[in-house]
């Protein structure tokens, strides 16, 4: 499933009638001169960007004995962490122009006791 965004096309995956688009940038990476400044739009891309894998996670302290948390919250090792983590995961039952309900979940970290 390919859809057009403001910055370029993304290709997601469909499973059981739900379209998933993962790791879509919503801002430029907050690194270098951008660090500690207001967010800037991402650079537009040419062609079709694959949106089938989770984006990078923000750096945070390691979770000791994560157990079930690793499975439920998709906690991954440091290879999947990066400062370039300003990305959205979008799940929708339809990709037409109709309005849809929206749930926004802002993960605050906090797996530490």
Distinctive features:
single chain; mainly beta; 3-stranded mixed beta sheet; 3-stranded antiparallel beta sheet; 6 strands; 4% helix; 23% strand
Provide a descriptive summary of the structure in words.
With 113 residues, this protein is mostly beta strands. The chain has a domain at 2-55 and 85-92. The chain is 4% helix and 23% strand. It has 1 helix and 6 strands. The strands form 2 sheets. Strands 1-2-5 form a 3-stranded mixed β-sheet, with no helix packed on it. It is globular and about 40 Å long. The mean pLDDT is 83.
Number of E-state strands: 6
Q: End-to-end span in angstroms? A: 41 Å
SSE string, helix = H, strand = E? Answer: EEEEEHE
Question: In percent, how helical is the residue content?
Answer: under 10%
Major sheet: size, sense and barrel closure?
3 strands, mixed
Mean pLDDT: 83
Oligomerization state: single chain
Q: Please state the overall shape, judged from the principal axes of the Cα atoms.
A: globular
The SS-based structural class is mainly beta
Cross-sheet strand order for the largest sheet: 1-2-5
Number of helices in the DSSP assignment: 1
Contiguous uncertain segments of 5+ residues: none
Rg over CA atoms: 16 Å
Strand share of the residues? 15-25%
Structure described in brief:
The chain is mainly β.
Give the SSE layout.
Blueprint: E1 2-4, E2 9-11, E3 13-15, E4 18-25, E5 48-50, H1 68-72, E6 87-92
Parallel strand pairs: 2-5
Antiparallel strand pairs: 1-2, 3-4, 4-6
């Amino acid at each position: 499933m390919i859809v057009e965004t403001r910055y370029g096309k993304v290709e997601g995956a469909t499973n059981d009638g739900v379209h998933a688009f993962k790791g879509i940038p919503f801002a430029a990476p907050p690194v270098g001169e951008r660090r500690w400044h207001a967010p800037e739009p991402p650079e537009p891309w040419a062609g079709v960007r694959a949106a089938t894998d989770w984006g990078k996670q923000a750096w945070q302290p390691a979770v000791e004995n994560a157990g079930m948390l690793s499975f439920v919250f998709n906690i991954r090792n440091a290879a999947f962490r990066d400062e370039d983590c300003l990305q959205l995961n979008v799940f929708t039952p339809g990709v037409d122009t109709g309005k849809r309900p929206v749930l926004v979940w802002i993960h605050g970290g906090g797996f530490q006791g």
